[in-house]
Amino acid sequence: QVQLVESGGGLVQAGGSLRLSCAASSGTFTLYRIDWYRQAPGKQREFVAKINSLDQTQYADVVKGRFTISRDDVKNTVVLEMNSLKPEDTAVYYCNGDLRYGITWYRNIWGQGTQVTVSS
């Protein structure tokens, strides 16, 4: 079963940085649209950033100017660079997107999430 796998989460102090990656779980998949979401304890999952097949990007207002989403074509991953982190950025971060393997598309695929904790 195709999944996305997030990595790079961890514990960081406020003002610090983390770099999250999203990759396919196996095989040689091409990533197309990839969105990042996050869910804090007791809150609903919220949109963070997205990159489409044309590499156009979009950000939630609360992360604009601090987070950057991009593709790493060498590693076939999508990266979320998070700078100037705040305690309110603490959440489980998920990627969601569309992948292609050969001529087969896999749409709306979720990862299992990676924990980001920002201490004050």
Please name the defining characteristics of this protein:
11 strands
Q: What would you say about this model in short?
A:
This protein is mostly beta strands. Helices cover 0% and strands 58% of the residues.
Give the SSE map:
Layout: E1 4-7, E2 10-13, E3 18-24, E4 30-39, E5 46-51, E6 57-59, E7 67-72, E8 77-82, E9 91-101, E10 104-110, E11 114-119
Parallel strand pairs: 2-11
Antiparallel strand pairs: 1-3, 3-8, 4-5, 4-9, 5-6, 7-8, 9-10, 9-11
Structure in words:
This protein is mainly beta and 120 residues long. It has no helices and 11 strands. The protein has strands at 4-7, 10-13, 18-24, 30-39, 46-51, 57-59, 67-72, 77-82, 91-101, 104-110, 114-119. The radius of gyration is 14 Å and the shape is globular. The termini are far apart. The model has no long low-confidence stretch (mean pLDDT 95).
